[in-house]
Amino acid sequence: MITVRAPATSANLGSGFDTFGAALARPADVVAVSKAETTSIEVTGVGAQYIPEDPEKNTVGAVVEALDAPAHIHIDKGVRPASGLGSSAASAAAAAVGLNELYDRGYTREELVPIAAEGEAVVSGVAHADNVAPAIVGGFTVTTPTATHGVETDIPVVACLPDVAVSTRDARRVVPETASMDQVVETVGNAATLTIGMCRSDPDLVGSGMCDSVVTPERARLITGYEDVREAAFAAGATGVTVSGAGPAILAACEMDDRRHVAAAMVDAFAGAGVESRAYQTRIGPGATIV
Ligand SMILES: Nc1ncnc2c1ncn2[C@@H]1O[C@H](COP(=O)(O)OP(=O)(O)OP(=O)(O)O)[C@@H](O)[C@H]1O
Ligand SMILES: N[C@@H](CCO)C(=O)O
Predict the structure, then answer these.
(1) Which fold has domain 2-151?
(2) What keywords appear on the UniProt entry (predicted)?
């Protein structure tokens, strides 16, 4: 049996829609795989009741198919589904790393990214790899249709998760089909600023590059209290705030000394909007690890 811990992730980071991703030090899924004649899946943990155990419908089933690696798979969920924290990707990433090891398939971490992304197609209709990439490789990642590049970085973040669900499939329906040239220029500038910030482990630069005027405003409308939470996080010292993945989680970057205040401010602001939430005080961390 092989057991793998794969982290929650935050995709987009504002200016990097379907491209940027970051691994969060916590929460995480823990997935155990053992060889079997036919594949079976058992799910326990946070939100397990909402996750199908049918291999055709669970993200890990697509990974089993892609690796031709039938197994009994136990998924212990630490990342709540429909969170914007890469819940479906965490399981797929852990399964890809575990089954690659179990069956000695010999793929590199980068080669496992498109394999794990097949699982995302099962739940959202698109094999977007911006969550599975950091969940497998760790740190900050840039994923294009042909490659994944990652860097280690040290950025404190708060991921505040309201007690409501937003499915990625639904949140992709509000993504605009076009952007103006002004928006393209602005986005390139912000994405480049964020990337330099990640390379320098500089929360100010990362935060200022987290802005996006194309996708984020549309997604923000799906999250009750978004503007209040954003303002409260900035007032408490956040350097940047945006929708995490497809939402409803909201991600804030900050200096380590401000992390606690930012977390409290975000939870209080959600409460003011009538929404319960929990804040993960975390940081950008490593990818999947065999435990
Ligand atoms: N192993 C799995 N873990 C979590 N969700 C799964 C899994 N397999 C299938 N699902 C389904 O995927 C959906 C959740 O995925 P979705 O992409 O909407 O959320 P997320 O992964 O938390 O968000 P995001 O991709 O925005 O970070 C739920 O409908 C859930 O039942
Ligand atoms: N890039 C994807 C990530 C989902 O977590 C989206 O925003 O739809």
Answers:
(1) Ribosomal Protein S5; domain 2 (3.30.230)
(2) Amino-acid biosynthesis, ATP-binding, Cytoplasm, Kinase, Nucleotide-binding, Threonine biosynthesis, Transferase
